[in-house]
Structure formats: C-alpha cells, structure tokens
Amino acid sequence: VDVIVGTTAFDSICEVIKESLKGKRVKKVKDINDKMCENLPRIRTTPSYTAYLKIAEGCHNRCTYCAIPLIRGRHRSRTIEDIVAEAKKLDAMGVKELNLIAQDTTRYGLDIYGEYKLDELVKAISDNTNIPWIRLLYCYPEKLTDELLDEIINNPKVCKYIDIPLQHISDSVLKRMNRKTTKKDIETLISKIKKASKFIAVRTTLMTGFPGETNEDFNELCEFVEKYKLMHVGFFAYSKEEGTPAASLPNQVDEDIKTRRLMKLIRIQKKIASEVNKSFVGK
Fold first, then answer.
1. In this predicted model, what pLDDT tens digit does every residue of 116-126 receive, in sequence order?
2. Which phi and psi (to 5°) does residue 55 adopt?
3. What pTM, to 2 d.p., does this model score?
C-alpha cells in the first residue's frame, strides 16, 4: 500500500498524491468525526442527467449489524445554505434528477438546528433550482415525519418515491438489531403512505438470517412482504461485520439456511413486482 487516506481527509488527496509520486509512503488520517469537507470543486461521475448530493455524514443509530459508525463517525449535517449552493452548481451542469443521500437522511439537521429539517431542505432546493426531480434515499422509518410526507406529496418536484430501510418486521429481531421501530410502527407507517392522496412508491431493504432469527420470525417477514406488496425490495443475507455487536451474538444462523430463506423471499417479491408492474400498464 502506497497511500492511506482517511474518510475525513479526502480534501488532502492532491497533496497526498504529490507526496506519493516523490516515492514516499503516505498516511493521511484525521479525526473520524471531523466536519465534512465543504467548498470543494464538484466533479460529476454519474451520467449527465443524474447526480447524488450528500447532505450529511456518519450515523448515530448504532444498529448492531452495522460498522458505519466505526468507519464514518457520528452524524454530521451540512448547512442548508451549503447544500443549496452545491445543488445550484449541479443544476447549472444540467442535472435533472438529484438524489439526496446520507447514512440517515431523515436525521438531517438535528445536530446543527436542534430539529429534523429534511422537509425544509427539500423545499429550499426546490425553490432555488430548476431541477425537476428530487429523490430521497435512506429515510429511517421512525424519523419519517408528517411534514416530510406532506412535502413529498405536495411538492411537484419531489419524486413520489421513498427509500425506507426496514431490515425486518419481527419485534424480537428488530430489538436485537437495535432498531428503533416495532412491527406496529412499521405497519402504521406503510399503511399511512399507501393511503396518501398521491401514490408513493416505497423501496426498502430486508435482511434474513440475522442471529437468532427463528422460522417463526422468517415466516412473519414473508407474510409482511406478501401483505404490503412494496414496489421495490432488496434482500440480503446477514453477514458478520468485524467489531459489531451482532458478530458476537449467540445463535448465528447457518449459511445454507440463510441462502434458502433469501431465495424464498426473492421468489415471493418477484411475483409481487410482476403484479405491481402490470398495474401500471396504460398509465
């Protein structure tokens, strides 16, 4: 390895490369909780019509399976003014779809403004740019406020689409995952979205094979998928992440059981996706 650059030190990349080209081995690492690098030139690496805009860095949620807080540090929001300035640059580049991202977008603003501000941020971007599509990714279910839902429904520039990482539906599994929602919370939220005045497509991710997941837990998850017919679902089998609490939990699930459960979920959703897609024919 010639160069190591920490996740909060990428603003030093040019300096680091120059040193490396002189034959030096360079390690540039800053405090993992440093402020996000701002006011850097924006280089778009996506196709011309779409771009990602990171609104915050790090995560406070401490889900037991996840190493992100160890890698990215605590949640730090950028200011609305800074984000809008970058959105304007992307607008000038011709971007038509702006995907707002963070490890937890719905926590946006709490650390610097004292309250959740994602709905205000979306409105500010909408009011100050000509970008016609604003898409929200990674919205945690417990922080998806009525104000944010109203902004999605009523703002014509916001895509009628929301990405909500649910992970599971069984209360016992959710508790071991250190998730902040219960089965009842999740079902209430999904029902509210489905009853909204405008159709909102829901995307989620669901995990099977988490330590201690029983056949009953898994069947509960299958029933949820079949009942609520979400439009886009990504499935994955649990895998140990070094340094996370879940890696040392008892009752780790055998790999072959994880695989069988994963394939069953995929088969269930494939049929549902086909049905949902057919419902859009002619629309």
1. 999 999 999 99
2. -100, -15
3. 0.91
